[in-house]
Records
---
Amino acid sequence: MKKPAPAYETAELRKFGEILRGRRSIELFLQTPVPRQLVHEAIEAASWAPNHHVTEPWMFHLLGRRSIDACLELVRELVTAKKDAAAADFKVKNWAAKPGWMVVSCRKSDDALLQREDHAACAAAIQNFMLYLWKAGVGSKWTTGDITRERRFFDILGLDADAADVVGLIWYGYPKLTPTQQRKTVGDILVELP
Ligand SMILES: Cc1cc2nc3c(=O)[nH]c(=O)nc-3n(C[C@H](O)[C@H](O)[C@H](O)COP(=O)(O)O)c2cc1C
């Protein structure tokens, strides 16, 4: 006989778990625009991430047409220099199809521990952002490619590279395709101590 579900296992909790498990990094997006209001709400939800000493170390940079085009130009230049024009063309074509561009930056600190904790807080905020969008049917992908450490990328964002780090460039949009993934089991990743 099937064991009864434990009392804590409500339909709401199951649904919440499905959202957490179902989110995937999306590579291919539809061109359907994502409402700006939804993105603002996702940023607001992101800002409730835990952050030690309530430093709120994050900034969200929502890119418009001009700044996206500047990033595409920059990535063309970087890939051409590193590889060749054909590789650059391929990458620019791929990146040009990403409908939404959000960058999350983290305030820099001279205090190494604070810096590490602030970075962790920004990562938690990005996860909030991505999950909020996911619940609304919007997929995303977090990237930390070469461009995110490039001085000219900071210039496009109007960011002082001595004062902030980029934690991620997040592309978002309605998914064209949602990939599947595997994860280790709880048994593989849990150490229970006495
Ligand atoms: C800090 C961070 C940086 C990432 N950078 C990249 C990246 O540069 N390129 C990429 O393809 N995916 C990147 N990803 C996405 C991961 O590859 C992805 O989360 C992983 O493959 C698991 O897939 P899932 O998100 O669908 O579960 C990054 C994820 C994190 C957390």
---
Amino acid sequence: MNISIIGCGYVGLVTGACLAELGHQVLGIDNDEKKLAALQRMESPIYEPGLEEMLHTNCTEGRLRFSGSIAEGVKHGQIIFICVNTPPRPDGGVDLSYVESVSQEIAENLTEYRLIVEKSTVPVRTSEWVSRTIREYVREDVDFDIASNPEFLREGTAIDDFMRPDRVVIGAESKRASSLLVSLYEPLNAPLLLTDTKSAELIKHSANAFLALKISFINSVANICTLSGADIKKVTKGIGLDKRIGQQAMEAGIGYGGMCLPKDVSAYIDIAKDLGYDFELLRATEAVNNRQRLWPVEMLRQRFPSLKDLKVAILGLAFKPNTDDLRFAASMEIINLLQKEGAHIFAYDPKAMTNACRCNPFITTCDTPYDACTDADAAIICTEWSEFRFMDMHRLHRLMSRPLIIDGRNIFEPERIIKHGFEYCCVGRPCSV
Ligand SMILES: NC(=O)c1ccc[n+]([C@@H]2O[C@H](COP(=O)([O-])OP(=O)(O)OC[C@H]3O[C@@H](n4cnc5c(N)ncnc54)[C@H](O)[C@@H]3O)[C@@H](O)[C@H]2O)c1
């Protein structure tokens, strides 16, 4: 099938590459000239394991190409996926201006039937609004369908998530639209859930909100563990073995970040408000997360009379491992706060340092975690990259000015670290102080 993907970011690029891998003819469209130039050189503008290789193979074999023209995309794709960004507005609601401008441009170029699919995460009833927008701008009396096909991939494991999804949700209002999407996804052999568009839109926000709720819940329990002397790892295991609860999205730490959960939770609060419902459960989820993200700063404040001129090593900048994505990463908020209080930041991340320097030029980036920790008064682990688990703790101890580790992701066993002579501080587990 001929497929067009508008917006070649974390979602669009993975979707396009995977659909090409499945044998479709895919045209990816993006209006970011730098990104487009990289893609046309078969280079991935983002870090996602396996993506660059997949891009290269599918471009070379002629199934995947890129363009800056939505008109070309409308001409090419029987199915057109909208994968543009839907960032938060300052009031927490969703900025749909990118979706709107793309919808308008699709409409202006529509000359025969196309299935237009929202893959971007959008508020319930957006498909009706997109449909109205297209009808307003379409030049001829052409037939089209709008469907909702929310994406559940996670950065860092995006290709596997796309190819082996837990489920594929297809929200459509016509048999023609749902049949096209069913035939596209059938080769994945995943459970296909057919719904109306509004339900599909709501499934995405509800799923992310529930994941965020689980994380804030377990972080609240971790805080009770700290106060009572219990161990959150044991508590989590004990409750997660209940099949109704499960072990996933239950890691205590410095909360959730990234381009999905924070913005989708605040969007859902706003959507509910517009519909006349106060989603207080989600307001609490958000408040808990906002507080939890700054836990490492609190730990430092408890240990030093002032943070001025403290040398702090930040291990991990990306919002999660195996990505270079810094959007809504706890690390950046922590760094900003520490810098405001006069601390000097030396950071290491395997993939996100270029993006970090772009966001905050006052961070000194280091080539290794050891360089970041040399003469440091404390090290804060913000991302659970697996290489941190295998650091030479003996060497680290020797390098640091004060061997204090504040582990925002609970990657170590406390006894082992304490045995190495570290002052060790973790979330919801008995630690050295
Ligand atoms: N990142 C994730 O893990 C993830 C997972 C599931 C769903 N989502 C949702 O998918 C959507 C996209 O997220 P993302 O992380 O891929 O965003 P992104 O910012 O990485 O990518 C969006 C892309 O759209 C392009 N774009 C914007 N306007 C355009 C236009 N008019 N024409 C052509 N290209 C245009 C941008 O240049 C950018 O490359 C969002 O709604 C997000 O909430 C993201």
